[in-house]
Model the fold of this input.
Amino acid sequence: MLISFAMICSCRKQDSAAEQQLAQRKTELDAREKALDEREKALAEREKATTNIRRIPADVQRRIPADVQRRTLDPAQVKAERDRRIQQLPPDAQRLLPDPAQVQAERDKRRQQMLEQLQRMRAGSAASPAADATSATSPGAKAPLTNPSAESPAAEATSPTASPTPQ
Done:
């Protein structure tokens, strides 16, 4: 009888622990569902806003205001307007702006340096196969070349005829 009573008490303790776990999991699940509902609502609002934007006719979206249409974008006028605005700035702010001629000179200088570097790289890669061919022969005794393709591995790789392969 004592054993059966102990078993019943043990089962009740396990049941209460399981009920607590179940209640905790249910609370967590409710919180997750609530967060998911909020996300779905936010997504629906975003989709609705996107749909409203798409409903605006394309010609209305592209319409240029009349005052902008009247302006002509003559480069001289644009430069004069820019210079006028720069002159209106305080001297401290004017010093912060780079001189356009100096900026262009720096760009040209960088472009020239990159071009020279590229040319050096191309010249270096073109000279590499020739340097390999001359280093293959001894510098003191140069033999006459009977088959130039035999000296250059690059020439073999680009040969139009197929090389025989052993079977």
